[in-house]
Amino acid sequence: MLVQDRATPKSSKPSSPPLILPSSHHGDHRRFAPAKSLDFSTWAFDNLYKILAVCFLAATVAALFFLRSAGDTAALLCFDKTRSASSSSSGGGIPYPRISWNSVPPIKPLDPSASPYASFRSDRWIVVSVSTYPTDSLRALARTKGWQLLAVGNSATPSDWSLKGAIFLSLDQQARLGFRTVDYLPYNSYVRKSIGYLYAIQHGAKVIFDADDRAEVVGGDLGKHFDLDLVGEAAAPKHPILLQYSHADPNRTVVNPYVHFGQRSVWPRGLPLENVGEVEREAFYTEVYSGRQFIQQGLSNGLPDVDSVFYFTRKSSGLESFDIRFDDDAPKVALPQGMMVPVNSFNTIFHAQAFWGLMLPVSISSMASDVLRGYWAQRILWEIGGFAAVYPPTIQRVDKARLYPFSEEKDLHVNVGRLIKFLVSWRSKKQTLFEKILHLSYAMAEEGFWTEQDLQFTVAWLQDLLAIGYQQPRLMSLELDRPRAKIGHGDTQEFIPKKLPSVHLGVEEVGTVTFEIGNLMRWRKYFGNVVLIMYCSGPVDRTALEWRLLYGRIFKTVIILSEQRNPDLTVEYGQLAEAYKYLPKVFNKFQGAEGFLFLQDDMILNYWNLLQADKEKLWITNKVPESWVSVSTEGKTSDWHVNQGTLVNQIVDKFPVHFQTSYKQSTTEGRLIICGSEIFYVPQRFVGDFIDLVEIIGDQRIHHKVAVPMIFLSMDAPENFDSSALATVVYKAGLSANDSFASYYTANVPAIYPLKVHHEYDFVKLIRVMASGDPLLQELV
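Now predict its structure.
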């Protein structure tokens, strides 16, 4: 799922009240005051308040200069922060929102005439997003005793959606609720659940189960799996002391809870990839009193919450469905302050004290939204003395063998490790919970974890919570800032997790896991912000998904061009003879990308051999003699070469002087440079030049093999290319029909040409030979 384009959100700032002049200013203009005496004592008495104001101002300025001259940075910190926030509003950065918390007008439920559920109230709510007609799992959720199911629609939801026992909020109904947050939500996304959370809170919720329409509650009773009654001494006997991960290692900031529940070779979506190799059981646990686990994450049997790296690399076949089981008897386990765990949006209990943490970010990819929310919420949870806990299997989810969008997890694999470190180190001196939430959201926007849009969304969310009567929990001192108690032998508890059987090619050796994922991490880190543009000359209906499966694990995203346009497979139209003319559109779409790698489908990329290439320079096969040739345009030359040479000369003469000079200094008059141009790389700093040159070419029919080297030589001199990046490409131009790809493929070069992939069987053969360089590929076939 992609976050859809949406209209610019309305400002969430309260409007300024109209200026009201004092009534004395509206007196009779014909009335004049009597002349005043010029006696000094009388004047001083009449102007005493002005004299005091001037003296106070002078004293303030003097104190300010004194503090600044004394170098007391701490004394001026608040002033500097305010000043920087003010200056940022004029273009120096992200402006810090200012909210009048005490003047937020209330939002009342709809009138009973407008909604049959206006006066309905319930303590316990299940909130789901629905895009299709009700599933059997959803029907079962609607029958869960003691719970009210709330289904939140989006633009893909059928207009006649209904389910007995459920309250359904269509887009039209959501818009009429009066919430500020609705202006920021994409139309076709599950993050519209944020409206559902507010609706449930407005209608009496004390506990919210965040679920999806595939969740089947084990045994049909949520109370048997989660702790639903936390508040009050009467609940204390029901909840014994919890096991808690040890805080002995202050550098350990995130854990894989699946190890505790018997599946140590499985990892949850949102776990930093550098941590998946940590598969050893805990040396010991500590304990914590139950009652403040305001966020409770349940596990899912069948298809657990795993990322696309696991999903793609741990299946023995594309048709196989996961059926992973966790230990039902393992004890629930809590997280101490300073340690986090991935939290999702389809199997999680939120208690009222953590309702503020339900907000789903809107400016990041949908597959990352709930995970970043979970980390953000856990950090704020520490400010009220709460913690998250992980529970044994609570639901069953069936794997429908749907394609997991790797590119939609880019915000996870690139940023999540850095985010966790940032959150653990973040501190705030704000005085209320909502002020701290706003402060953290601002800091995350400043650090680039989400955008200013989510900062404004936070403002709207907090105002909506106040408007529906939500009471902010009381702040507590942060344990992280207090000396940690030394863990003695009597304070430790031991639990040995089971090693449950797996049907997913589980890897048990720490070294193997670390090696496999370590390689993937290095490749992803290098290419994670590079867009791959593939031109497919083969049948895209049989190969497009396979190419995305192969390369989507590595690159920011994979854009496919073909003469066979296919909107269902997101394949754009393009002609190979002029493929370069379609690139500016892609460049403009991904302006934040580090660079763009063009690749034809008959050029196979060994991405693992490009980690030493310079991503700030141009790459092309100018050092591969079979690919880069210079031909004469004079004498006995083909008409095509003469025509292309003439067009090149005409176009170059129209280039601005710097492009024209660069090209002519790198070529010989009367000769034409031709390059196969099956593979080349354009860094972001040359994108503007590339676009300008393509615009100058315009409608002229310069072939791709001629235009690309012309553009490259115009943008920069060959000695400035990273010519070594592709210098060892294997390029077999004159192969016979009997030549096998396996006979000349090698994993030790950056790319090999040619190989035709026409259907799935060709792709399987390709994957098997490429697995010698990337062993994880063995598990894709």
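Confidence is low (pLDDT under 50) at residues 1-45, 60-91, 503-513.
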